[in-house]
Design a protein that fits this description.
The protein is α/β, with parallel strands linked by helices. The protein has one domain: Aldolase class I (TIM Barrel). It has ten helices and 14 strands. It is globular and about 60 Å long.
Length: 329
Amino acid sequence: MLLDTHGRRATDLRVSLTDRCNLRCTYCMPEEGLAWLGRPELLTDDEIVRLVGLAVRELGVTDVRFTGGEPLLRPGLVGIVERCAALAPRPRLSLTTNGVGLARTAAALRAAGLDRVNVSLDTLDPETFHRLTRRRRHADVLAGLDAARAAGLTPVKVNSVLMPGVNDTEAPDLLAWAIAHGYELRFIEQMPLDAQHGWQRDGMVTADAVLASLRTRFALTPEDGGLRGSAPAERWLVDGGPHRVGVIASVTRPFCRACDRTRLTADGQVRNCLFAREETDLRGALRGGADDTELARLWRAAMWGKKAGSGLDTPGFTQPERPMSAIGG
């Protein structure tokens, strides 16, 4: 198992397939993009499947989420999903995407064995979408969401980040829209993982502000008495249910105490926390001829050293060198 010194067990693996993205969201990267990883630096399809297989068979991982960058830009994505779905024991497989290319891939991903998707969408207004992402692809994301639902990649979850003075008034409209379309909406606090290192605590929309905005139109009741276990989202029933809405408050309400995640970057580095400043190189060991026993030892050692918390709530917090696009969501 992947244990740490605080008694937590990692069963949820986030696998970044690429650091590239076809949007340029203002809270993530500059308009000109970033210096992408070269192809030799990326794990190959075979290497990804081998490491996922090791995590599932030997290390107790039960859930695998493919992320990026934008994972739909990975040419071998469908094949990777199909091979991971064939592992025994079979992990639950999900994908986090900006949805731009989902309309043309949803059916193939479902056929390959993908269970569900999370799609990022911060606004219902095409012009605000362009302002946030610097691309005019709003209609493509909506089409991708429709395709995901039609393909059976359910529950389709929609992730939204609210930015002050841009889309911070849209929370009630986004929830009404999500309910009408059968999507599960989750608001995520903006995190200090932008490539520009421009994040400021007093410049983000907090969970409390989101909930106050939602309550101007909806009655919210904590689901399961407010107990969320290792889930990152606190969830509320909307107007008594059955619809629900979630808030992921990584900054103001951190959930480190019950964290069950381990992360593998697109270039083969294990990260034991989204905000970690240290990594463990599995790619080098793998390409150097390490067998599965040695790779498992390295992975366990990386997780054993996991800190009690992210440090976001401490005065001395320092943002990781890598931005979110290079770490994986």
